[in-house]
Protein 1
Amino acid sequence: MATFVQWVHVTAAVFGIGGIAFLLAVLLPSARALGPVERGQLLRAVSSRFRWLSWSVIVLLILSGLYNVRQFYWEVAWGRSWTLLTVKIVLAFAVFAISLALTLPFQALERVRQRREKWLSIALVLGLIVILISAYLRRG
Ligand code: HEM
């Protein structure tokens, strides 16, 4: 069971952070080759598909992450591992908040969506830090 949940966690992380990297490195730069009307249509279509991917990833990461905390950390005394894990979870929730701000269909979030490249870049950097901390926790 622990192996299966770890697989779910890592796979969701690959889809989530990989999806953000794909948008930033491939899709958004390529969309600049289109005219404004086609670009708008493409971005709306991408956004409604990315919504389901990112929401599924968030649910899977939280459920599998909580299982991992229960399985590997619950009995561990407070110390460096817990501190790093706490930092990781706070950063992970910052990534989730950015993803939600970019995909929830609320008019109030339109200003965030207009600066999507900036927010996606921040989410990518935070996500990479989360993965670095996770790798360190695994080795330590
Ligand atoms: C941006 C979101 C997240 C990413 C990219 C991410 C990524 C990862 C990765 C790559 C691992 C290493 C797995 C392995 O080596 O087998 C891991 C482990 C882990 N994750 Fe996450 N994770 C995220 C969110 C969360 C959340 C929200 C929680 C808790 C609620 C969590 C709890 C854990 C725990 C407890 C481990 C095990 C660490 C260890 O091996 O000591 N993760 N995560």
Note: Residues 24 and 117 are 7 Å apart (CA to CA).
Protein 2
Amino acid sequence: MIRHILSRSIFIAAITTCSFGLAAHGSVTPQGVDTSTLPELGEEWSDTNPYRDAEGHDREEILRVGSSAYNQNCARCHGLGGVSGGIAPDLRMLAPDYDGDEWYVYRVQNGAVRNGAVYMPKMTEHLNQEALWAIRSWLESVSDTQ
Ligand code: HEC
């Protein structure tokens, strides 16, 4: 019986986390992403991915941080490893160019809200520019290999 109740509450907790995600302020701790090893970008949002042409050690760090930040903050809706399970769009499909960047920035800044329901939280409230461009760079790197 206790086991039954326990597994039920875990189930409900999982559902709640899935549907409301980070939108419920204060109820979910945003996943901290340590971006101290990445080139700094400042407060002003870049129009295009400033990390796209990074090379060598910088690029390795960008992809490492991007992969982990994605898996902690985006994967539960957009799919593990960037492969969408159908809940939310497959982010590997966004073109690695100006148009793709523009749409990416729009969505991470505004999230997706319809009729008051939050389908995607505003990710810029939880992650800085460095983390979000690192995620985008990582997504571009996995879409290259498809
Ligand atoms: C709670 C679920 C959820 C989480 C978490 C989430 N998203 Fe989303 N995202 C969605 C949904 C649903 C859509 C589709 C919205 C629509 O079309 O109205 C979407 C759309 C997008 C789009 C537009 C894609 C397109 O092809 O139109 C981008 C870019 C995006 N998300 C980036 C991210 C990033 C980056 C993260 C993590 C930092 C993230 N999302 C976390 C649910 C989520």
Note: The mean pLDDT is 84.
